[in-house]
Amino acid sequence: MTRTSLDQADEPRTISGGHLVARALRAEGIDTIFTLCGGHIIDIYDGCVDEGIEVVDVRHEQVAAHAADGYARITGRPGCAVVTAGPGTTDAVTGVANAFRAESPMLLIGGQGALAQHKMGSLQDLPHVDMLGPITKFAATVPRTERVADMVSMAFRECYHGAPGPSFLEIPRDVLDARVPEEDARVPRSYRASTRSAGDPAAIERLADLLTRAERPCVLLGGQVWTCRATDAAVELVRELTVPAFMNGAGRGTLPPDDPLHFQLARRHAFGHADLIVVVGTPFDFRMGYGRRLSPEATVVQIDLDYRTVGRNRDVDLGIVGDAGAVLDAVRQACSGRTGNGAAGRKQWVQELREVETAAHRKRLPRLRSDARPIDPYRLVHEIDEFLTEDSIYIGDGGDVVTFSGQVVRPKAPGHWMDPGPLGTLGVGVPFAMAAKLARPEAEVVCLFGDGAFSLTGWDFETMVRFGLPFVGIVGNNSSMNQIRYGQTAKYGAERGRVGNTLGDVPFSEFARMLGGHGEEVHDPAEIGPALRRARESGKPSLVNVWLDPDVYAPGTMNQTMYK
């Protein structure tokens, strides 16, 4: 029997699970997904084409997850990676774990065998939710096609519960491929509440009292200052109250390098002599010596998005849970209502720290300008610092060589420093560069790799070429996993110091050229700057392979607690 046009008009319009995913992503503001293809997830691609979402296909799922993490850091919006079931999802675990420790909001969508084949041994079937649960803020399976968009929005909401973090959603193949009437499938579009808590008003007033009375205050501006887009609030408070500022992680660049209250090398002196230390958006983890680097005589205040972080590993005199920008702005306003804010009496304290800072820089200056061959890592990172412009996003991906850069490289603006974060994951460089260039095509992206770190995800250099994403890559090459080598040598002696950590002498410039990029080898320190400029001018993804002295270690490497 032939159906009439009237019969067809009466039929409800239907939509597939994959298209519901795409609609939900678009409603969330997602304009790019990072993925490696698999049969379980292709209907999502079809939906993304219809919704105008760019599909960036990479060569390894770890890269997809890292890129989603990096995209969130750059844009302030959650990133999204889509991977297939089984090994596709397990390959992405490292990227999710890194985002979890770095408090980066992203959604990983993983495929799964059909619900109709549950526990039957379908292709690539694994208990993904059980595996991802401990390293996400939310992990679940979508049980029905009608629930797809609803659960995508649910997963995104959970990314912002407390401190941000990743979520995971598993979608079985038959749920993804099935079609349901559009009227039965809700696509949430307005479901976000403000998360900008300014903290307890009484605590705000108390911090204002402490700041106005302190003679030697300092503040550490951590990653949450950038996560909360709190740059303006932080800068205004620091300048109005004349509070010396130190920055770490994504908080670097909050103050420009030439600001009189920007400090980098005097941190130990400040933490040992301050009478008030305000720590914003930084946990007392290994990077802070678990809080033991702060003077026991100082009054310590901690501001964080996550209640569980405040006072962990070290007692605090005042803890405030809230958005860094909202809290700092409220404190500044509370201080402005007082007769004096204490700023006038801090000139001597600021001068003391500036003298310490200047002395530390002068002590290091001969190595920053060293003409030694093999090249001193300090010379390399100094050249990078000189090379960066006001619009250069700097990415560090490595161990010992990136530890050097943390002491020398100064991003010129907020949001222009990216590193893996406290998980210390190697291999983030290429995916972070990919995300940064896609999100900010007008910006220059500069990435320093250790030779070991680049090797982990370096094949996606080809993805950068394929998508036309130029960046300046520098490999600090010492043919070693040098951060580990130092510890082994210190513990077991030089005769066993190279077991399991020695790499081949790889000319990475040839790798770059083979894949269609720009590459150069540098053995002479005088050629670092010219080579970086040629890489910039090439307009291509590039690798400048700089041969470093393998027997020189960063102070941060030698002082790591794991070697004590």
How would you explain this protein's 3D organization?
- The protein is α/β, with parallel strands linked by helices and 564 residues long.
- It contains 24 helices and 19 strands.
- The chain has a six-stranded parallel beta sheet, with helices on both faces. Strands 15-14-16-17-19-18 form a six-stranded parallel beta sheet, with helices on both faces. A five-stranded parallel beta sheet has the order 10-9-11-12-13, with helices on both faces.
- Helix 16 (377-387) crosses helix 23.
- Residues 16-125 form the Thiamine pyrophosphate enzyme N-terminal TPP-binding domain.
Strand order of the largest sheet: 3-2-4-5-7-6
Low-confidence stretches: none
Q: What is the overall shape?
A: globular
Give the distance, in angstroms, between the N- and C-terminal Cα atoms.
83 Å
Q: How large is the count of helical segments?
A: 24
| Count of beta strands | 19
Given the helix and strand composition, which structural class is it? alpha/beta
List the topology elements.
Blueprint: H1 5-10, E1 14-16, H2 17-28, E2 32-35, H3 42-51, E3 54-57, H4 61-75, E4 79-83, H5 87-91, H6 93-102, E5 106-112, H7 128-132, E6 138-141, H8 148-159, E7 166-172, H9 173-177, E8 179-181, H10 201-213, E9 217-221, H11 223-227, H12 231-241, E10 245-247, H13 267-273, E11 276-280, E12 299-304, E13 318-321, H14 324-336, H15 347-368, H16 377-387, E14 392-397, H17 400-408, E15 417-418, H18 429-439, E16 444-450, H19 451-457, H20 461-466, E17 471-477, H21 482-492, H22 508-514, E18 518-522, H23 528-538, E19 541-547, H24 555-558
Parallel strand pairs: 2-3, 2-4, 4-5, 5-7, 6-7, 9-10, 9-11, 11-12, 12-13, 14-15, 14-16, 16-17, 17-19, 18-19
Antiparallel strand pairs: 1-8
Helix pairs in contact: 2-3, 2-8, 4-6, 4-18, 10-14, 12-14, 16-17, 16-23
